[in-house]
Amino acid sequence: MATTPQPGRREAGRRSVLKAAMGLTAGAVGVGSGALGAVPAAAASAAGVKPRLQQGTALVQGAGDSASAQGLGCGDLGIPYFREHDGSWGYVFGDSWNTQQQVDSGYLGSPVMLNQASFDSSGATPISFTWAMPTSGRAAQLFDYRHRTNNGYGYEVSRIPNDCIEFGGRTYIQYTSVAVWGTDQDPLPAGYDGSLMSGVAYSDDYGVTWNDYAYHWPGDTQGTDESLYGMWSFAGIDPDGWLYIFSKRWNGSHKNTADGGAIQLFRIQPGDFRAGNFGAQQNWAYVNGAWTWTTSAPPSVILSGNNTGEFSVKRIGDTYCMSYFDVVLGAICTRTAPRPDAVWSVPVPRITALTVPNLYGGYIHPGSASATSLTLIVSQWTASNYRVLQFDGINP
Fold first, then answer.
1. pLDDT digits (tens, 9 = 90+) for 208-245
2. Contact yes or no for 191/179 (Cβ under 8 A)
3. Which residue stretches of 306-381 are H helix?
4. CB 3.0 to 4.6 Å from 195: which of 121, 250, 281, 318, for a disulfide?
5. What is the H or E stretch that residue 68 is in?
6. Strand partners for 370
7. Backbone dihedral angles phi then psi of residue 279, each to the nearest 5 degrees
8. pTM of the prediction?
9. In sequence order, what DSSP letters do the residues of 90-109 get, joined into one string?
């Protein structure tokens, strides 16, 4: 068994994978000219020029940026969600530091949340964080647990968020508890995902305090390697009343060789989800030669291909949009479908390591302008630090 690195050391493995992937993306489609930034809206307006969409604007780890003003110096993921109770927006980060350089004394933990009063879906102005959770003051870890120890479930390094949603006055974060990160020095064994378990935490005060549902989905060190319940994405509550959820194997280290890009789909009534009655889910499964919604069979794999890392599915308008990090191509790919259980379009690389070296993540902003003009939040590893970038106008 590989030894477990410190949270701040895990990116050695991610860096090597991404560097290797850069050499495989020569034919991939890139976004932008490689210059990370955008023409300020005021300057563009004064010059009579249409404001340029954000094409890699750094939201974290910049001089005097809004994240640092809230106590977050560097961090990754930045998963966006709509805070329906007041119309604001939340952004959930993974391992984070209060300095712009990763140092042990500055480690905040994971997950961490910053909020925004109002989001400009036009892309004319970049995302700016206006307050932090859980205290509305300085950013701090949301969940009450300790790192690099046994919190009652087995040894865990960190709990990494995969998605967040708010409905009915309650906020939910689905996360993966990591037992072992893959690194250059200690790579994951072939076919091993390194997870302890996955779970869902909830908050009834919109992010101030959090509780964990009693049920957890076991990971490798609890006896279930390659669980397809490792990483979730909340696609949202459809007009038909169901909450649709996509899930896949844990591959946050980007070094799970058995990931295979497999994704499954299930749905559940929002009331059952709130009650923690997860056994009430219906599964999209291939049974007796046909696809059907059922409770008598587990979900079937609906998509597969290259190993994938972080992924995101959101209903934008009447279209379901998906984005994910293709580990093999070193690219953020997108695809669409008219319904969660319909046929998905062919994946297309939209942002690649040719224009954004060492990229990963790629979360769809639920406030995107339209299904043909998405805002994506992309992570980047840079010289032992994390940051997130904003891309607008992505047509999947």
1. 999 999 999 999 999 999 999 999 999 999 999 999 99
2. no
3. none
4. 250
5. helix 66-69
6. 373
7. -70, -10
8. 0.89
9. EEEESSEESSSS--GGGEEE
